[in-house]
From TrEMBL:
PANTHER family: CITRATE SYNTHASE, CITRATE SYNTHASE, PEROXISOMAL. SUPFAM superfamilies: Citrate synthase. One of its GO terms (biological process) is tricarboxylic acid cycle. GO terms for cellular component: cytosol. It holds the Pfam family Citrate_synt. Belongs to the citrate synthase family. Coiled coil: none annotated. GO terms for molecular function: citrate synthase activity. This is Citrate synthase.
Length: 373
C-alpha cells in the first residue's frame, strides 16, 4: 500500500531545478543564484528572462540579440487574428488567454520539436507573445485597434501604453518592469508544476504553458491579485479593520495573505509595498495603499499571516491604470519567462512525473445488472 499522502504535496520535493530557490524561513528568493533584492530595480525583465531561459545575465550583445528575437516573436499568427474578436466577446481574460495562447502554436515553426534549440526559440516567442495577446484581447473587447508595439521599447513600456492608451512616464515603466522581474519565477509553484507535469510527458512547450495559464487563473494562486483589488473596492475605507476582523471571524480567507513556503515576509512584497506607496502618493489619492497597510496590520495581528506577492501587486497595478480583470493576465506575462525556462529544464533531463495515490474508496463491490440497481 502507498504511504499516506501529504495533503497538497506540502514540503514534497517534486523536481530539481537550477532556476530559482526560496528560503521560506528567512524570506529569501534567488533566480539562478542572484538575490531578488539585487535584481529588482536594477535588472530589466528582458535580462531576467534571458537569465532564466539561457542561464546567464546577458552582456550587451546578447541582450541586443535576445531583444531582436523578442521583437520578431510578436507576430500573433492567423488563428489569433481570425478569432480574437469573438473570443474577447465570449471569454473572460484568463480564459481568453488560455485559448489565444493555444492558437499561437499553429504558426510556430518549431512546434514539432522539443530539442533544446527549438525550445529556446519558442521560449523567446512565447515571452514576446503573452503581453501582445493581453493587449490584443483588451483592444478587441473594447472594439478598438491595439496600438502597435514600438520595437525600440521594452516589454514593460509597450504593455503599459497598449493597455492604458497613454504614454507611461519613465518611472511608471521602471516600476512595472520591476513588477515583471519580481513575478518571473518561483520554484515549484502550482502553475510551474502544472507546466512541468505536462512537459514531462514529452508534450510540447505551448501545451505546457496552456496548462500553466489555466492553473495560474485560480484565486489560491495568481488569481488572488484580482481578488485583492475586489476586496479593497468593496471595503469602506473607514471600517477596514472591523471588516477584515469580521471576515476572519467568519472563516473567510483574505486574498493576498499567507503562503505555502514563506513563513515570514515574502521578499517580493517588500518591493511591491514600497512601489504601491510611491504610486499612491504620486496619484494624489493613496486611499487604497493606506487601506492595504491597515489590512496587513489586522491580518498579522489576528492570524500572524504576511502579505504574499499578490497583495501589494494589486494596488501597484491599479495605480498604474491597469484594469482589475487584467491583473492575473499581467502575472502571466511575467511568469511566462519562468514557465518556459522550466519546460526547457524538464525536457533537458526528463522523467515522466507520475506520483502515487492513496486509495480511500469502497472495496469489494459486487456488480449488479442495471435493472437491479
Ligand atoms: C502567487 C501566489 O500564488 S501567492 C498565493 C496567492 N493566494 C492567496 O493569496 C489566497 C489566500 N491564501 C491562501 O489561500 C493560502 O495562504 C495559500 C493557498 C496561499 C497557502 O495555502 P496552504 O499552505 O495550503 O495553507 P492553508 O490554506 O492550509 O492555510 C493554513 C491555515 O492558515 C489559514 N490561512 C491561510 N491563508 C489565509 C488567508 N489568506 N486568510 C485567512 N486565513 C488563512 C487557513 O485558513 C489555515 O487555517 P487553519 O489551520 O485554522 O485551517
Ligand atoms: O510559490 C507559490 O506557491 C506561489 C507564488 O508565490 C508564486 O507562484 O509566485
Amino acid at each position: 500500500m502507498a504511504d499516506k499522502p501529504t495533503k497538497g504535496l506540502a514540503d514534497v520535493v517534486a523536481a530539481s531545478t537550477a532556476l530559482s530557490d526560496i528560503d521560506g524561513k528567512a524570506g529569501l528568493l534567488f533566480y539562478r543564484g542572484y538575490d531578488i533584492h539585487d535584481l529588482a530595480g536594477r535588472t530589466t525583465f528582458e535580462e531576467t528572462a534571458h537569465l532564466l531561459q539561457h542561464g546567464t545575465l546577458p552582456n550587451r550583445d546578447q541582450l541586443a540579440e535576445y531583444g531582436a528575437e523578442l521583437v520578431r516573436g510578436r507576430a500573433l499568427g492567423s488563428l489569433v487574428e481570425q478569432n480574437v474578436v469573438e473570443i474577447a466577446e465570449k471569454q473572460e481574460p484568463m480564459e481568453a488567454l488560455r485559448t489565444l495562447l493555444s492558437l499561437t502554436s499553429a504558426d510556430d515553426p518549431d512546434k514539432d520539436s522539443n530539442a533544446a534549440d527549438a525550445n529556446l526559440r519558442k521560449a523567446a516567442r512565447l515571452t514576446a507573445l503573452q503581453p501582445i495577446l493581453v493587449a490584443r484581447f483588451h483592444a478587441a473587447r473594447r472594439g478598438v485597434e491595439a496600438p502597435e508595439p514600438d520595437p525600440d521599447k521594452s516589454i514593460a513600456a509597450n504593455f503599459l501604453r497598449q493597455i492604458t492608451g497613454k504614454e507611461p512616464t519613465p518611472r511608471e515603466v521602471e516600476i512595472f518592469d520591476e513588477c515583471l522581474v519580481l513575478h518571473a519565477d518561483h520554484t515549484m509553484n502550482a502553475s510551474t508544476f502544472a507546466a512541468r507535469v505536462c512537459a514531462a510527458t514529452l508534450s510540447d512547450m505551448h501545451s505546457a504553458v496552456v496548462a500553466a495559464i489555466g492553473t495560474l487563473k485560480g484565486p489560491l494562486h495568481g488569481g488572488a491579485n484580482e481578488q485583492v483589488m475586489r476586496t479593497l473596492e468593496t471595503l469602506d475605507p473607514t471600517g477596514v479593520a472591523d471588516a477584515v476582523r469580521a471576515k476572519l471571524a467568519g472563516g473567510e480567507k483574505i486574498m493576498g495573505f499567507g503562503h505555502r513556503v514563506y513563513k515570514t515576509e515574502d521578499p517580493r512584497a517588500t518591493h511591491l509595498r514600497r512601489m504601491s506607496e510611491e504610486l499612491g502618493e504620486a496619484s494624489g489619492d493613496d486611499t487604497y495603499y493606506r487601506m492595504s497597510k491597515e489590512m496587513e496590520e489586522v491580518v498579522f495581528a489576528e492570524k500572524g499571516l504576511y502579505p504574499n506577492v499578490d497583495f501589494y501587486a494589486a494596488t501597484v497595478y491599479h495605480f498604474l491604470g491597469i484594469p482589475t480583470d487584467l491583473f492575473t493576465p499581467v502575472f502571466s506575462v511575467s511568469r511566462m519567462a519562468g514557465w518556459t525556462a522550466h519546460v526547457i529544464e524538464q525536457h533537458a533531463d526528463n522523467r515522466l512525473i507520475r506520483p502515487d495515490s492513496e486509495y480511500i474508496g469502497a472495496r469489494d463491490q459486487k456488480w449488479v445488472h442495471i435493472d437491479e440497481r
